[in-house]
Amino acid sequence: MELDKIDRAILIAIQADGRATNASLAETVGLSETPCARRLKRLEAEGYIEGYRAILSKSALKLGLVAFALLRFGVHDRQLADRFEREIQAIPRIISCHNISGSADYLLEIVARDLDDYGTFLRDVLRALPGVTSVESTLSLREVKRNAGLPMP
Known about the structure:
Layout: H1 5-16, H2 22-29, H3 33-45, E1 65-73, H4 78-89, E2 94-99, E3 106-112, H5 115-124, E4 132-139
Helix pairs in contact: 1-2, 2-3
GO biological process, one term: response to amino acid
Protein name: AsnC family transcriptional regulator
Keywords: DNA-binding, Transcription, Transcription regulation
């Protein structure tokens, strides 16, 4: 089904505040509550909304370092890549992982307490992952823009 202007407004509003009540959401998009709730359920059922979550504070959780790691494989084998991807899923401090094109095979976003903590993680965990032959790290100095949600076409 095509998204209309109201559907897009609902998606924009819910990205900004996933805890918005149906009443406030309806008011924001200019609908009464029942049709707004129906549309929201339809958007969920059709897969436009995958879920809801809270954004946690890295500083409150004492995770002061964000690193981006480029991982390279020596051998490109499907079974090895599958094993690597399964293991990545079980490591909480890796907050995103992308299979990429270019000179590296994967790009990981990782959080750590500090540089020493990241160094230990790099040595003991990243370099020990199946298939990994090299790791290149880039450290974030500050976050300029946080994931603000997807743009609406």
